[in-house]
Design a protein that fits this description.
Blueprint: E1 2-3, E2 6-11, E3 21-32, E4 36-47, E5 50-59, H1 66-76, H2 91-104, H3 114-119
Antiparallel strand pairs: 1-2, 2-3, 3-4, 4-5
């Protein structure tokens, strides 16, 4: 379920190797005095009954790697790698991507500062 600033993913029944999970992803743009606009994301939820809470920030020009970071964090907390939380194949991904682009004032073809990739752990 997507609404601007929030994405929820979950399943209430374990199926095979896929445990029950409920994950909320909230995001907004924050202005950093030194770095400029930053995409702030908060990932909270429960996987197989174990709660977790993570947050991270990505620079304006690297923010569109958010799905990779979210997946990596969910896998770290026990979601099998066979489960893709955010995929370019989901309509909600397109809506979320566009919402983030508008919030950041980003445009296709904007340059990427390679130092930001390292700072953001990408």
């Amino acid at each position: 379920m997507f609404e601007p600033g929030h994405l929820f993913r979950g399943n209430s029944l374990a199926v095979g190797e896929i445990p029950t999970y409920a994950i909320d992803l909230h995001y907004d743009v924050r202005q950093d005095a030194a770095e400029g606009p930053m995409l702030h994301m908060s990932l909270k939820g429960e996987i197989a009954g174990a709660a977790f809470d993570e947050s991270f920030e990505l620079h304006r020009d690297t923010a569109f790697n958010f799905a990779s970071v979210v997946s990596r964090l969910a896998h770290k907390h026990g979601l099998p790698t066979s489960v893709v939380l955010i995929s370019h194949e989901h309509e909600e991904f397109d809506r979320m991507f566009e919402d983030i682009r508008q919030r950041l004032g980003a445009h296709s073809g904007d340059p990427v500062d390679l130092d930001h990739l390292e700072k953001d752990g990408l």
